[in-house]
Design a protein that fits this description.
By secondary structure, the chain is mainly alpha-helical. Helices cover 68% and strands 0% of the residues. It is built from 14 helices and no strands. It starts with 12 loop residues before the first helix and ends with a helix.
């Protein structure tokens, strides 16, 4: 598609960031209609950046808890309003790029509501992937959004706030479980693949604070998949899946990534140590 025929976002920016709630509400509804009707097209980067600048400050202007909660849910649902998966993921990419760029400018009085917004978008993202039945290309693109340039788990971008990666690691599995629970007969979640961005971050981040986010999400996964149990608390078609298989898959992923040449030496040692301790725990549990 030529640049001339590329879709352009409607001029909603100033309305989304209006000081008048009625104006913002109308702009959000118009945005939902636009995204739904143009779902076969992916907005150019510049148009997406303009659009998300307005959306970010639309949420910034919401100042009452119930209004914030409703708006956060409405904005996250836009991912699912778009019926074309590549367009949905492009919209999600705009969310993360804007969130990473603007995060350090959020004051402490507004931080909690943006934590909530992130949670809502993580949940909607998982529901989108469930809707695709964990399509491998969609999951791969989702991981690239998190780990790629301006993503919240990008290991090479010093602009990415450590607090954002930490928050993501804390809520990731909770929101995955909620998304699975809200879906009818969802296929098993590819956990080791979904954890890949955290494992890649652990391998390549130069920041010790960021490195600490990786054990959080992995350990919480293991808590849901304890050794010597037949079933894990991660739903599949029957509501359960084999815990040992989940643990082994994740541990193998950790070992494989730790062995890659791009992995930093200090990070590799910590990942090998984590792998060794987890394997020994499994062997002890097996008797």
């Amino acid at each position: 598609m030529s640049a001339a025929s590329a879709p352009a976002a409607p001029p909603l920016g100033k309305y989304l960031a209006s000081s008048e709630k009625k104006t913002r509400d109308k702009a959000v509804k118009n945005l939902a209609a636009f995204l739904s009707s143009d779902s076969e097209n992916v907005l150019p980067d510049l148009e997406m950046a303009k659009l998300w600048k307005g959306i970010f400050y639309c949420f910034w202007m919401s100042d009452k808890p119930l209004v914030q909660q409703a708006l956060a849910g409405e904005l996250a649902e836009l991912i699912l309003t778009i019926t074309d998966v590549p367009s949905s993921l492009n919209f999600l990419r705009g969310f993360w790029m804007t969130t990473v760029r603007e995060w350090n400018g959020i004051d402490r009085l507004r931080m909690d509501k943006y934590y909530m917004l992130v949670r809502k978008f993580v949940n909607a993202s998982f529901r989108l992937l469930v809707r695709t039945k964990w399509d491998s290309s969609a999951v791969e693109e989702y991981n690239s959004i998190l780990s790629g340039p301006s993503g919240p788990l990008c290991p090479n971008d010093i602009r990415v706030p450590a607090s954002l990666a930490f928050h993501l690691s804390e809520i990731y599995l909770d929101e995955l479980e909620k998304a699975l629970a809200s879906s009818e007969s969802p296929p098993p979640a590819p956990l080791s693949t979904l954890l890949s961005p955290f494992i890649a971050l652990a391998a390549r981040t130069p920041t010790n604070t960021t490195l600490q986010t990786y054990p959080i999400v992995v350990v919480r996964t293991f808590a849901r998949c304890p050794p010597s149990r037949k079933k894990a608390r991660t739903p599949d078609n029957d509501g359960t899946m084999d815990a040992d298989a989940v643990r082994k898959s994740i541990l193998q992923k950790i070992f494989d990534v730790a062995s890659e040449t791009e992995t930093r030496d200090a990070n590799r040692r910590r990942m090998y140590a984590f792998y060794k301790d987890a394997v020994e725990d499994d062997e002890d549990s097996a008797g």
